[in-house]
């Protein structure tokens, strides 16, 4: 129960606690889950319960079987595939299953390889699981390229795979692609015929045998597609079909030879699991046990097949297993769920313990009894219980303190229950349920974790002795047959990171598993003396000891701002091509912000022998200096390449380009030399570190040739006399850090690099990366406005200022929730003693906004749209929303026709989401990338372009394409090998991702963006005809009237100008006879050209589709129509640079006159930029218009306004209606009242339409009404009447 009037803070805290507690997964389930993990060794290999439940499970035998199948598939080209899918309604969790085919058996039966139970569908959870299980399957580069992995286009799964395994052969399920298309068509008002036709056409595209055939079919099909579907296809389907679905791609895999790609095996496995569980939801521990039984059943049946028994049979040529093979225990598939659930009623009556835990324990106990695994040792007076999953044995006996069992469980385990079932006795057990006690007992005699001296199994990397030591000599005598090696990386796939394309090479490398383990003990830290003594003399050092020691001395020297020491595992991970952890650490540490980065490493990673060295990466001199205590050990090529990989990761994590050719690797020739029996780490690492600092701090080392020469030995005394110099270095490091903050970010317009993505998930608390692309940091961005223009700009910005929350960050649960919000239709005014709604009046509606807690909001700023409509008679009008700044909104709707009418209120964005959009508009105008191609002969390069590009020593020079007439800025990075005059075209790159904080992303979901607000009470009214003598447009409507309304499907302006209907070619031709119609702008004005040119059939010239320029000519009627897109920024696919014309310049080139009509629309492509950019562009156009109308007063100019559109939550970050309404207000203000200029209100004409959806490119019905309105201005009704 919510507490409306709490008495004190404690009551509120108790209520919050109870609410949270009710949403938790049952504690008994979690206990049972951990208990199963101990009782079924190897099956559950990962459990985490905070902050979200995450379980990874799978029998080792099944993983071994899957790995063997993969090996066979690669070597013999079997039709193998891996399918991964998430299923629902299994319990209070999702279940994701990796499934494969058993290609050794006839009909290739499907079997489950591994499972993930997860509470949320986070991409990072899929990434963790896939990295884990694919690593266990030995999925190296060769297998990743030959065995397809089939998924259903779920964003979390696809993102995880592309991030963790860039080289994976990813295939999308054909059925899910077609299902997504059907969903999109129905959502956007399509008919059944639309669904059938479009799905058939996409299916034909998927079946294309070659890319040329694919493109030819697209060229044919797209002629009949609507603009909305064409946009959807280009943005969401085109690349997916080519790269992941089409037959010419999937046909390379044996699994899809002459077959369409589907994940039917996942669907089949999901059905098996649900059928096995009787289509019921289970607690998490019951589900885990059920999955264990199911895998045991599959293993049993597969083993029977190898014996020539059972339902399956082996393929010809596959050898049978020996008859004496031991069969694994199993439970029949059809009885698994009964086995798990059958204990519920019985155990509830005889056990006073949590039922959820009893289900799994009782089921295991019953299995033990049925398999005869309980025996009595009468001499010892104990029961002996064997485990059904392995050979382990536990003893159950009675004591004065109750029944005891030797297993780790702290509760009443299945061993005790099995004895009770077998004997019919009830054994009293006084154990308490303690997860901590169970974990402690499960460790056996091991010491506590978390000690300063780690236990042997707490470390997962190796420390090896020097090559001339006794231990190395002993190891060299081990016969080769005893030594084992596990190398999952295909060396043939290695990339040469030392080349000039270092970053590109890194992007193609997959991530592999952990480094080598050690059984050596760590040295006693008490022997590690400060400063002047060697570290742990005559003791083999662990890598962690080395990095901690060097880090502590860096801190003591007070130069932490400019010097960094990396962990030793960084080098090891880079050597085995596991770049994910390296990039995450480099991003978290900000490695590129330091002058020097130390990299301790061991040679056993790259080649024979084991020896510690210390590398110092000097970013100023671009040199890696290696300190080596054995001169005979020069730095190998592999070690040099690995060091360069580490440095390349530092650049990549910071978004910078890395050029390996600029770097050198230098051996320090006079580094201190070690003696036999002395640890290499003492001399190479600490000696090199001391030598480095004696050079930096005392100036006693001078550079000579390829190495370093010293006049003295290593300085190991106190360094306090150099404190002033250390202080200077620290201040210098701070200065360099601040300086680099403006230079490190540079857009990579291709897409977010697979190596750059990991840093975005390091912590949800990290702010999304800001960019240097903003006006304040770009003084070259356009000409300075005059004082009058600056004053107008300030006035315009003030006029569109938007109220927001009272504080910067509002918890998501206190943001606007459309589900809790509602609107109320106010009663009509009492006129002549009658309370009725009549034509000529207005309808008042109050909207009450509430947050997710159900509490009324106390501030405004929500973006709402409202309209009234009568679809039956084709009538509709938009309403005016007034923010009352207290969480309520007054809506005024005109009553312009008689009959029943429905009221609709839509929450486009909450006030909190609007605050995020404001931030993006000012901080991230670079969130859409632009590029240009430069070409000369066969040489071509592509560089980034924008209104503003960061400059500095780390960036390339700029090519300045600022328009000389208007001063409109545009820049591209200069190609490395071509001149600025070799620019060929302009095109849109990718949309930037990772723009939001984690809590901000919750404000942009399908349940929060463009969601209807429900009515409290009725949502419809009946409008009566106007009273006798009353006008259809009342005087009280003047303040809120829209520009017009629809009635019987036709637009009726309220300006008083009659609109005519131009319904055929002759009417349009007669009106346009002798006219020149010039159209400029974006694709929304191109729609006018496409509509009108259909009635001017004589000659039509069109350049590239959807881009222009276009021209249509009717020489008989002397009609000329043209369309040209506006200058950059413009998000078209490809525009020739010679065709990038600014509207102001085009208008200045027109003669004008009574025979000239100029129509323009410019707004959509400016939604990602600060409003000042749009104001400047409109100002130049307005000046050009004024000059045109001065020299040719009879010219008609039509300016189209913006219009609302349906967008998905992700796309709203770039083209939200809130961006559009802001630009629309600026456009109206700048052209309102201008002589000879007509504002065509596309916003009202789109929003008010009673049946058509709100599309970026309005439906043909709306375009027809817009054309009628333009032609009515060209040919007024009086002129038409006089001619008649």
TrEMBL record:
Q: Where is the SWIM-type domain?
A: 393-424
Any GO BP: transposition
Q: Do the record's keywords include Zinc?
A: yes
Does the record bear DNA-binding in its keywords? yes
Gene3D superfamilies linked to this entry = Adenoviral Proteinase, Chain A
A molecular function (GO) term = peptidase activity
> Which InterPro entries does this UniProt record tie to the protein?
Ig_E-set, NXPE4_C, NXPH/NXPE, Papain-like_cys_pep_sf, Peptidase_C48_C, Transposase_mutator, Znf_SWIM
Q: Which PROSITE patterns match?
A: ZF_SWIM (PS50966)
Q: Which family does it belong to?
A: Belongs to the peptidase C48 family. Belongs to the NXPE family.
Q: Which PANTHER family does the UniProt record give?
A: NXPE FAMILY MEMBER, NXPE FAMILY MEMBER 3
Q: What is this protein called?
A: SWIM-type domain-containing protein
Q: Which species is listed as the source?
A: Coilia grayii (Gray's grenadier anchovy)
Q: What is the lineage of its organism?
A: Eukaryota, Metazoa, Chordata, Craniata, Vertebrata
């Amino acid at each position: 129960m919510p507490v409306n009037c709490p008495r004190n803070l404690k009551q509120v805290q108790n209520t919050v606690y109870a609410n949270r507690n009710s949403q938790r997964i049952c504690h008994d389930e979690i206990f049972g889950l951990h208990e199963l993990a101990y009782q079924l060794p190897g099956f559950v290999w990962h459990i985490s319960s905070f902050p979200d439940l995450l379980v990874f499970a799978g029998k080792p035998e099944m993983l071994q079987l899957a790995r063997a199948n993969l090996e066979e598939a690669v070597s013999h080209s079997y039709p193998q595939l891996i399918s991964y899918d998430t299923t629902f309604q299994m319990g209070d969790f999702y279940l994701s299953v990796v499934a494969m085919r058993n290609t050794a058996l006839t009909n290739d039966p499907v079997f489950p390889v591994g499972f993930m139970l997860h509470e949320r569908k986070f991409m990072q959870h899929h990434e963790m699981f896939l990295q884990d299980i694919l690593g266990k399957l030995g999925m190296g580069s060769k297998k990743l390229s030959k065995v397809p992995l089939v998924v259903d286009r779920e964003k979390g799964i696809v993102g995880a795979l592309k991030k963790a395994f860039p080289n994976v052969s990813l295939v999308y399920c054909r059925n899910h692609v077609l299902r997504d298309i059907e969903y999109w068509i129905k959502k956007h008002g399509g008919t059944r015929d639309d669904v059938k036709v479009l799905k058939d056409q996409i299916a034909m595209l998927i079946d294309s045998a070659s890319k040329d055939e694919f493109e030819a079919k697209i060229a044919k099909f797209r002629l009949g597609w609507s603009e909305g579907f064409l946009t959807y296809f280009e943005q969401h389907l085109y690349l997916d079909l080519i790269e992941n679905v089409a037959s010419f791609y999937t046909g390379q895999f044996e699994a899809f030879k002459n077959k369409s790609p589907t994940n039917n095996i996942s669907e089949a496995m999901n059905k098996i699991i649900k059928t096995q569980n009787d289509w019921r939801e289970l607690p998490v521990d019951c589900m885990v046990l059920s999955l264990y039984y199911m895998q045991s059943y599959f293993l049993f049946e597969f083993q029977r097949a190898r014996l020539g028994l059972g339902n399956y049979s082996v393929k010809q040529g596959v050898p049978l297993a020996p008859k004496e093979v031991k069969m694994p225990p199993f439970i029949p598939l059809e009885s698994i769920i009964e086995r798990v659930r059958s204990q519920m009623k019985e155990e509830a009556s005889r056990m006073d313990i949590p039922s959820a835990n009893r289900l799994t324990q009782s089921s295991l106990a019953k299995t033990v009894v049925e398999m005869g695994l309980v025996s009595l040792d009468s001499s010892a007076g104990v029961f002996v219980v064997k485990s059904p999953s392995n050979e382990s044995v536990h003893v159950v006996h009675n004591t004065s303190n109750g029944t005891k069992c030797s297993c780790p469980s702290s509760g009443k385990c299945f061993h005790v229950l099995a004895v009770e079932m077998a004997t019919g006795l009830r054994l009293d057990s006084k154990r308490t349920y303690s997860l901590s006690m169970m974990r402690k007992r499960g460790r056996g005699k091991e010491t506590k974790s978390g000690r300063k001296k780690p236990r042997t199994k707490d470390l997962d990397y190796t420390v090896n002795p020097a090559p001339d030591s006794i231990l190395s000599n002993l190891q060299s005598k081990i016969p080769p047959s005893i030594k084992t090696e596990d190398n999952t990386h295909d060396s043939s796939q290695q990339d040469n990171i030392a080349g000039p394309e270092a970053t590109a090479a890194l992007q193609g490398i997959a991530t592999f598993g952990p480094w080598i383990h050690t059984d050596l003990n760590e040295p006693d830290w008490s022997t590690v003396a400060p400063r002047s003594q060697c570290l742990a003399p005559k003791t083999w050092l662990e890598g962690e000891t080395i990095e901690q020691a060097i880090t502590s001395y860096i801190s003591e020297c007070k130069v932490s701002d400019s010097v960094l020491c990396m962990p030793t595992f960084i080098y090891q991970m880079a050597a085995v091509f596991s770049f994910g952890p390296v990039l995450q650490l480099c991003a978290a540490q900000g490695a590129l912000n330091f002058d020097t980065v130390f990299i301790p490493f061991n040679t056993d990673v790259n080649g024979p022998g084991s020896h510690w060295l210390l590398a110092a990466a000097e970013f100023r001199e671009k040199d890696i200096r290696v300190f080596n205590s054995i001169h005979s050990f020069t730095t190998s090529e592999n070690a040099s390449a690995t060091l360069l990989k580490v440095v390349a990761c530092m650049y990549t994590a910071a978004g910078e380009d890395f050029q390996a050719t600029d770097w050198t690797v230098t051996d320090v020739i006079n580094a201190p030399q070690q003696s036999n029996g002395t640890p290499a780490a003492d001399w190479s690492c600490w000696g090199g570190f001391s030598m480095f600092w004696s050079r930096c701090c005392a100036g006693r080392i001078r550079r000579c040739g390829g190495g370093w020469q010293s006049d003295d030995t290593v300085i190991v005394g106190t360094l306090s006399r150099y404190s002033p110099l250390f202080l200077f270095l620290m201040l210098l490091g701070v200065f360099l850090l601040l300086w680099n903050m403006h230079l490190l970010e540079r857009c990579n317009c291709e897409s977010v690099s697979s190596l750059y993505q990991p840093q975005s998930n390091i912590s949800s608390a990290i702010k999304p990366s800001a960019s240097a692309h903003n006006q304040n940091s770009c003084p070259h961005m356009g000409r300075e406005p005059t004082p009058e223009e600056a004053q107008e700009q300030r006035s315009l910005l003030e006029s569109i200022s938007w109220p927001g929350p009272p504080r910067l960050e509002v918890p998501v649960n206190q943001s606007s929730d459309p589900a809790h919000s509602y609107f109320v239709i106010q009663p009509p005014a009492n006129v002549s003693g009658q309370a009725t709604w009549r034509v000529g009046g207005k309808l008042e509606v109050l909207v009450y906004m509430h947050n997710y807690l159900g509490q009324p909001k106390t501030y405004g700023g929500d973006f709402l749209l409202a309209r009234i409509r009568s679809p039956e008679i084709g009538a509709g009008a938009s309403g005016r929303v007034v923010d009352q700044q207290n969480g309520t909104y007054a809506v005024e709707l005109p009553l312009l026709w008689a009959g029943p009418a429905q009221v609709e209120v839509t929450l486009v964005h909450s006030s909190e989401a609007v605050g995020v959009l404001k931030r993006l508009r000012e901080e991230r105008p670079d969130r859409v990338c632009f590029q240009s191609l430069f070409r000369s002969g066969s040489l071509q390069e592509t560089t980034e372009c924008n209104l503003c590009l960061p400059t500095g020593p780390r960036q390339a020079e700029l090519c300045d394409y600022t328009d000389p007439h208007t001063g409109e800025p545009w820049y591209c990075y200069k190609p490395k090998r071509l001149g600025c005059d070799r620019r060929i075209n302009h095109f849109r790159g990718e949309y930037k991702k990772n723009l939001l904080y984690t809590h901000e992303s919750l404000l942009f979901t399908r349940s929060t963006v463009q969601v209807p607000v429900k009515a409290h009470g009725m949502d419809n009214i009946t409008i009566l005809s106007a009273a006798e003598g009353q006008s259809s447009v009342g005087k009280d409507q003047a303040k809120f009237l829209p520009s017009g309304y629809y009635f019987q499907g036709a637009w009726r302006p309220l300006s008083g100008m009659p609109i005519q209907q131009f319904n055929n070619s002759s009417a349009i031709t007669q009106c346009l006879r002798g006219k020149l119609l010039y159209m400029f702008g974006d694709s929304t004005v191109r729609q006018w050209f496409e509509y009108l040119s259909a009635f001017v059939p004589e000659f039509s010239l069109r350049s590239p589709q959807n881009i222009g320029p276009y021209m249509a000519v009717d020489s008989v009627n002397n009609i000329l129509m043209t369309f040209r897109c506006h200058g950059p920024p413009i998000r078209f696919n490809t525009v020739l640079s010679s065709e990038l014309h600014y509207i102001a310049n085009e208008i200045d080139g027109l003669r004008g006159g009574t025979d000239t009509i100029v129509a323009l629309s410019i707004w959509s492509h400016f939604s990602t930029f600060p409003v000042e950019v749009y104001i400047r562009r409109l100002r130049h156009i307005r000046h050009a218009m004024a000059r045109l109308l001065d020299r040719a007063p009879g010219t008609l100019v039509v300016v189209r306004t913006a219009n609302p559109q349906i967008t998905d939550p992700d796309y709203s970050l770039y083209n939200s209606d809130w961006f559009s309404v802001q630009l629309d207000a600026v456009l109206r203000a700048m052209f309102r009242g201008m002589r000879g200029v007509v504002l065509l209100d596309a916003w009202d004409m789109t929003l008010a339409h009673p049946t058509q959806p709100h599309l970026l490119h309005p439906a043909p019905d709306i375009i027809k009404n817009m054309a009628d309105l333009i032609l009515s201005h060209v040919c007024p009704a009086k002129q038409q009447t006089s001619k008649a």
